[in-house]
Write a structure and sequence with these properties.
heterodimer, A: 2 domains, 8 helices, B: Cytochrome Bc1 Complex, Chain D, domain 2, elongated
Amino acid sequence: MGLRRIRARMKNFIAGFFAGTLALIVGVLGYLRLGLLDVRSDAAIPDRTARFLYSGIHASVRRTAPKLQSPLPQNDETLIAGGKLYLNDCVGCHGEPGKPPSDFGATFYPPAPQFSRVGTKYSEAEVFWVAKHGIRRTGMAAQGSSYTDPKLWSLAAFISRFPNLPPHVLEEIQQTPTK
Amino acid sequence: MKRFALGFVVALIVLPIVCLVYFSLGFSQIRADAKPSALETAVLRAAVRASVRRSAAGVPSPPAANDDDIVAGGKLYVLGCQGCHGDLGGPYQEDNDLYPAPPQLTHAGTQYSEPELYWIVKHGIRMTGMSAYGPFYSEKELWSLAAFLRRIDKLPREMIEKVRQKKAG
């Protein structure tokens, strides 16, 4: 008799679980459909949300990005080439070395990380992957259609060494007129 | 019925946790050079639409825009928006580098009203490439941009020419 009772209880539990699942889905869709989710991007992001988003993104990149070795030589020339790309195309959101943080980068939600101030936890191969493929649901567009792989590797070399770039590299890229 | 209630509650607790853990452990795909599914697009677009409508409800109606305002808004568009939203007078070109892709306004136009467009440009859309431009544009500029955007796919040829004309003098 025990078995039959357990079975009946299980059945009820499972029915309840499905009903709960359904309620959750309907609840979320209803919440979205009614416009109750705030979508403005010029609100301060709560610390906990920011940590959650950034760490989830990092975990996904760590999982997905192939552990490649840069094909470029590790020298100042590579860093300077990458630095020039950075000054041309990334500073608008990610901050210029030696300057205050980017106002424009702060108007995204989540805001663009300020590499020139805080550096990055991402490895060189991960920076390459992110630059190439972008990050969905952020302002980070995929650059793979605009830049060749070697250019992206030089960029990755430069960004992944923030904020410990040799001063003469920074001087070099900032004194030559870009474009 | 007690078991049913228990199952219900367990689902409400466990499923959100599963979602959070799934994301935290990096199982969600995050590369931007892919296309969102039709379902994702439909659900989130409707959510943004509804939220903007709700949020912009308190925005006062726009000042009546004359042709000069629209042209001024168009000039702002050319400088600040067309990189993502489509060249004025240019061919249709999909942008798949951002996820979700920015709407190609020059061809698709927009469903949003002027106060809603004003609100979107000023405040941006969270978790997209659309950042907030409130810090960079004056109220007058925001409204002229909204007036232009509202009409962007229906502008007469000579208006487009006027927008694209270099400032004379």
